From TrEMBL:
This is ROK family protein. PROSITE patterns: ROK. Belongs to the ROK (NagC/XylR) family. SUPFAM superfamilies: Actin-like ATPase domain, Winged helix' DNA-binding domain. It comes from Herbiconiux sp. A18JL235. Pfam families: HTH_24, ROK.
Length: 393
């Protein structure tokens, strides 16, 4: 009976409220089969009856929707100098969240211990169905581990998924830029999107045809460690990854802090860079605008090759607004194909600090509610109390 249950559930995740008739039309299944599927989903508490629809002469038809409060997803978006942890519903909406300062280079044990503490503080007795963790480094997605991360000292191949396994829920480990890209694509309802995270480091996530482009090993889109165009005219600056001439060595938060300190400014973090820009400090404005041009050079070829609808920028340096964006736009429009930029929108994210945890929740829900995984989930929740009164007629 459960064959294709996940496909029926996916209709509610995509379309929202649906009647039986609409499910039949969208799925192509028979009425009796749809009734069986709806019954199984309702018994598991995954859909809820929300009242009558329009009547065509008889009794009003029932309508159903995803029961987004059936369980929760724990998510943690870990950056170089801090993380945001959240409890999210099954639609990816953060219900409660908190942020903490950390130094990711201190290693996985102290950082993940703080994440665990934050999860415990945020939970309010809800049933946890999944855990999503975002990290600022290349991720071997299937294994749930980071591989050779440039700024994550001590994290190489650390079993992040295994750390959270005692919580008894599936664990998804994802690159932080990918999770932000998913949030931006779903919330904005834009397909074909490039998301740039520009903070202490630089990351890029690609969502095309409603899917993350990870590549064969999970390294797709990592423009921060491609060669900067500016490096071709001089000896390349050293990057924290061990190479020279990387985009990150010129346009990241840590590179800007370095350059501002060399120019006599006292800047200890990326927030200090943003503060100087907001104060119209000429040196800071010049450097951030130049960083935007370097980012624009780096992403211009991606625009020509992939033809995105949108480039959205998040992270602390995105708070520099038009100072950064003007440089990105200048180089993208100069260097990319005219047809690829004709309707291209380049802007700053408006999701704030919950962008990463929202995307992680959506990616985690995609996994646990996938057609191939739904049988296992329903086995786990069989016998759970369901809302009474669902008629299968």
């Amino acid at each position: 009976m459960r064959t294709h249950v996940g496909e029926v559930l996916a209709l509610f995740r995509e379309h929202g409220e649906l009647s039986r008739t609409e499910v039949i039309d969208l799925s192509g299944l028979s009425r009796s089969t749809v009734n069986q599927r709806l019954g199984a989903l309702h018994d598991a508490g995954l859909i809820t009856e929300i009242g009558g629809g329009e009547s065509t002469g008889g009794r009003p038809s029932s309508r159903f929707a995803l029961n987004r409060s059936r369980a929760v997803i724990l998510t943690a978006d870990i950056g170089a100098t801090g993380f945001v942890a959240a409890v999210c519903d099954l639609a990816g909406e953060p219900l409660r969240h908190t942020s903490r300062a950390v130094n990711v280079w201190e290693g996985p044990h102290p950082v993940l211990s703080l994440v665990d503490e934050a999860f415990d503080e945020l939970l309010d007795g809800e049933e946890v169905w999944g855990i999503g963790v975002g990290v600022p480094g290349p991720v071997e997605f299937a294994a749930g581990r980071v591989v050779n991360p440039p700024i994550m000292t001590g994290w190489d191949r650390f079993d992040i998924a295994g750390w959270f396994a005692p919580r008894g829920a599936p664990v998804v480990v994802e690159n932080d830029a990918n999770s932000r890209a998913v949030a931006e694509a779903r919330v904005r309802r834009h397909d074909n999107l490039i998301s740039l995270k520009v903070g202490t480091g630089i990351g890029s996530g690609l969502v095309f045809n409603n899917s993350i482009i990870r590549g064969g090993e999970g390294a797709a889109g990592d423009i921060g460690h491609t060669r900067a165009a500016i490096a071709d005219s001089a000896d390349g600056l050293p990057c924290r990854c061990g190479n020279t001439g990387c985009v990150e060595a010129y346009a990241s938060g840590w590179a800007l802090i370095r350059d501002l300190e060399l120019d006599g400014r006292e800047v200890v973090d990326v927030a200090g860079v943003v503060a100087l820009v907001r104060q119209a400090d000429l040196g800071a404005v010049r450097l951030v605008r130049q960083a935007g041009r370097i980012l624009g050079d780096a992403v211009a070829d991606l625009v020509s090759i992939l033809n995105p609808e949108t480039i959205v920028i998040s992270g602390q340096l995105a708070e520099c607004g038009e100072v950064l964006l003007s440089g990105v736009r200048e180089r993208v429009y100069q260097r990319s194909q005219p047809l690829a930029t004709r309707n291209l929108v380049i802007g700053v994210s408006d999701l704030g600090e919950v962008a990463g945890v929202t995307g992680l929740a959506l990616i985690t829900v995609d996994r646990i509610l996938a057609t191939a995984a739904i049988d296992d989930l329903l086995e786990r929740v069989d016998g759970a109390a369901a809302e009474p009164g669902l008629s299968r007629a």
